[in-house]
Amino acid sequence: MKIGFLVPRPTQFEAPFYRFAAGDRSHELEAVFTADEPGSAVFDPELGHEVSWGMELLQGYPQVSLPREQRRRKLDELLAARHYDLLITNGYTEPGYLRAARVARRIGTVAALRLDSVLPARPGGREAVKRLLFRLVLSRAYDLFLATGTLTRQYLAAMHVPDSRVGLLPYAIDVGHFRLQARLDATSRDAVRGRHGIPPEGRVLLAVSKLNAREAPWDLIRAVAGLDEAAPWLLVVGDGPARSELERQAARLNARRVVFAGYAPYGDLPSLYGAADAFVHVPREERWGVSVAEALAAGLPVVASSVVGAAHDLVAEGQNGFLCEPGDVAGLGRCVTAALALDRETVAKVTSRILQQWDYAAAWRGLLDAAAQARRLRAA
Length: 380
Known about the structure:
The protein is α/β, with parallel strands linked by helices. The chain is built from 15 helices and 15 strands. The strands form three sheets. Strands 5-2-1-6-7-8-9 form a seven-stranded parallel β-sheet. Strands 12-11-10-13-14-15 form a six-stranded parallel β-sheet, with helices on both faces. Helix 6 packs across helix 11 and helix 8 packs across helix 13 (about 330-340). The chain starts with a strand and ends with a helix.
């Protein structure tokens, strides 16, 4: 099977997935990039500065970059020349993506839409508009819909997309890499903690977060400040416009064990996971949450808010973590305490079993199965 993946640029977790797929000699995945200079640093509006992943993104897999000049014509030519069995567009709002799906279908290629949409916490009029969009536009442009997880599957069901036209393509991570790189000996673990002023004997709660209105851990700081003298250290890794406000909040609450480490390059994350005892991700809105999978792969128990898509698929309540409701500070404090008390060997066993269904190999198998099903439906 020959698959084209139309996406603006490679990400830190999907470039390794493309390389994994390239190892399958029976099938081919080709990334088709539409961003100018797809391997360059990208401005992140939530952080307010450019982000470079500090890793190679453009080597080890089939790819093509479409030039801005005459991009529409070049894409038509590419689709005609490659004649993919399946074309995946990563979303439909990028210029030309919806049209590319229609062109692909006209020449006999199965078209798939990969999306991470979820239902809002409070239903409103937008859902009726979305259902109309699916019925009149998207269901006619695409043969297959690839969800990132369970919450997106629920969204597609609410949009009246038949289950026979739904597959799974999660934001998988390199599980083996995080598992291996997070294994620190005692000296390395103490060194990572020491760089942030945390004593070797302290218990460490790690949060990797953009410090803005959507993700900033106001609730987490209040929860940790409300714990007793045995409260863990909270290491907040990340940056954003709310950092100064959060630092002032920690000072007002006399939360002396809260450390703001600032932005960390992606390559530094495994050692930070390895130096922690538990991981917390409690945004008010998060369609997936790749950091949840990273922390679990590193062997940590996870506390996540119930809006985090990854938590619904990767966290087994009371076994490798807990879910809490956004805004419930007391409940969050209880979850943190319970997570720190979990047996790490049990956490590792449970997580290993779960991640076997969500790693690169599982994502690739699921994609191939969904593509085969879509081709059968189209041929019927």
